[in-house]
User: Fold Inosine triphosphate pyrophosphatase from Dispira parvispora.
Amino acid sequence: MSTTPLRKLIFVTGNQNKLREVQAILKGVVELEPRAIDLPEIQGETHEVSADKCRRAAEIVQAPVITEDTSLCFNAMHGLPGPYIKWFLKKLGHQGLIQMLTGFDDYSAQAVCTFAYSAGPGSEPILFEGKCDGSIVPARGPPIFGWDAAFQPDGYDHTFAEMDPVLKNTISHRSRALAKLGAFLETQN
Assistant:
């Protein structure tokens, strides 16, 4: 990736943890201007939710934007809670996530991040998806960023919350989606 930002881009998010992580991963590719806009989310699959959110954001902002949607998909539950993980976590907490899998032998999960880019109002969003396989575990580490304390990526002995941010930012679902988005943005000068 290049060493100077190619352009300024509006990132529609009110989540400061997410903003810091995305800024760290995209450093030198694009300068992000955060905008906290409360966007309604449709029900559906991750790609449908992501595209709709980006379309709405571009209409409101009247400029090129990126948005992000994260899913946590339990394999035992055929992908649920998926894009609704935010609401499950809010109501059940970290302990509730693992309790949801009581009675199942399979605690494996997939973290999925989808970034959507729109060139502006009326422009169809382009989606960039990243995935990270892992397992749902009893919460370990600071419970400050979503479900990170309850997700342990395959091949590691630590949850995302326990990991050094630099390591997490090289293996996470978000970093994999941003690698694709960053490569796309570099072709847009």
User: Anything to note?
Assistant: The longest strand covers residues 108-118. The chain is about 35% helix and 25% strand. The radius of gyration is 16 Å.
